[in-house]
Design brief:
Layout lengths: L9 H11 L15 E2 L5 E2 L7 E3 L31 E3 L2 H7 L6 H4 L6 E2 L10 H15 L10 H7 L7 E8 L8 E7 L15 H9 L3 E2 L10 H5 L6 H10 L1 H4 L6 H13 L1 H5 L4 H10 L4 E3 L2 E3 L1 H5 L2
Parallel strand pairs: 3-4
Antiparallel strand pairs: 1-2, 5-7, 6-7, 6-8, 9-10
Length: 311
């Protein structure tokens, strides 16, 4: 520990670093300098073969505190091209140390959702996950300063984390009453099959809620412009909603669907049809519409989506 060294405390380490920074070659000569206090309180030498992460988000991965610069030294040091022993904590780095905190065998699933308790004292919990997405936004924001990225662009930005279950979701068990919901974590790569229900308003919101399909946890707090909201299905992407409904077509068959709910969804699709068709194969899209089992009885006749849209 630093208090067991000649420096006695981190304040003296800071004073020494500030003094050394008076040299124009400080960044180039940081290698082997025994002034690196890591987040676990240990005094070490800076080494390029074992670079230290420069970040305030070490609390996300407490088991890896020895890999992070101490918070008290964070403001003094900034990674540079010539400073190979101190590096930014990017998403690739986060993915590399995440298994030390979350069991990869359970939470790195690629396909499977994982049950979780947001109020759990242990990681992962609500506070931890909110911190994770705040961190993700902080390191990806330079990539989308001018405009929010499209879903495929967001996936590319998050490629190191796609297999990890980091998307908080509420899901219904289709074998039970539709009102029964439980909390799960979706893999990031499956976020396109999670609905941001709160982004919808009016009859369409009610209709989608009654379908009881996987939705983003409404208690989860994230920034309005968070990258997470570009991954999930929202009112801003009608085409994504259609793909979402198609993905869960077999589950929808088990749901009790009111006529007015079907009409609300169909009306939303019809109103946004031009945007939905943009940049897609129209035949594929129409086939997708046909396969979604939402029907409305009018004068005793059941109509498919495509029949209703032709009215």
């Amino acid at each position: 520990m630093v208090n067991e060294t000649v420096f006695q405390n981190i304040v003296n380490v800071k004073k020494c670093i500030k003094y050394c920074q008076g040299s124009d070659t400080f960044n180039d000569e940081l290698e082997d300098l025994p002034l690196c206090v890591t987040a676990d309180g240990i005094l070490r030498a800076f080494k390029h073969e074992r670079p230290i992460y420069w970040s305030r988000y070490n609390s996300m991965v407490p088991e890896s505190n020895h890999r992070f610069i101490h918070n008290d030294l964070y403001p003094l040091l900034t990674p540079s091209v010539s400073m190979h022993c101190l590096v930014c904590f990017d998403l690739q780095a986060f993915a590399s140390v995440l298994p030390n905190t979350l069991a990869a065998s359970k939470y790195k699933t690629q396909e499977t959702v994982v049950p979780w308790n947001a109020e759990n004292l242990n990681i992962p919990n609500k506070n931890w996950l909110e911190n994770v997405w705040t961190y993700i936004d902080s390191v990806t924001v330079p990539s989308h300063l001018t405009a929010p990225p499209k879903p495929d662009e967001s996936e590319k930005l998050l490629s190191p984390l796609l297999a990890w279950c980091l998307v908080p979701c509420r899901q219904s068990d289709s074998t039970k009453h539709e009102g029964h919901r439980f909390d799960v974590l979706f893999p990031v790569c499956k976020a396109k099959f999670v609905l941001d229900l709160q982004s919808f308003k009016g009859p369409i919101e009610t209709a989608l809620e009654r379908l009881a399909l996987p939705c983003l946890d409404e208690n989860f707090i994230s920034q309005p412009k968070s990258l997470l909201h570009t991954l999930v299905v929202s009112v801003e992407n009608p085409q994504a909603l259609l793909c979402y409904l198609h993905e869960y077509k077999n589950i929808i068959k088990t749901r009790t669907i009111r006529s007015k709910d079907c009409l609300a969804i169909l009306e939303f699709i019809a109103q946004n049809l031009e945007e939905i068709l943009e940049g897609t194969n129209e035949d594929d899209l129409l086939n997708m519409i046909k396969e979604v089992p939402l029907h409305v009885t009018i004068s005793g006749q059941k109509l498919t989506w495509i029949q209703l849209l032709k009215f």
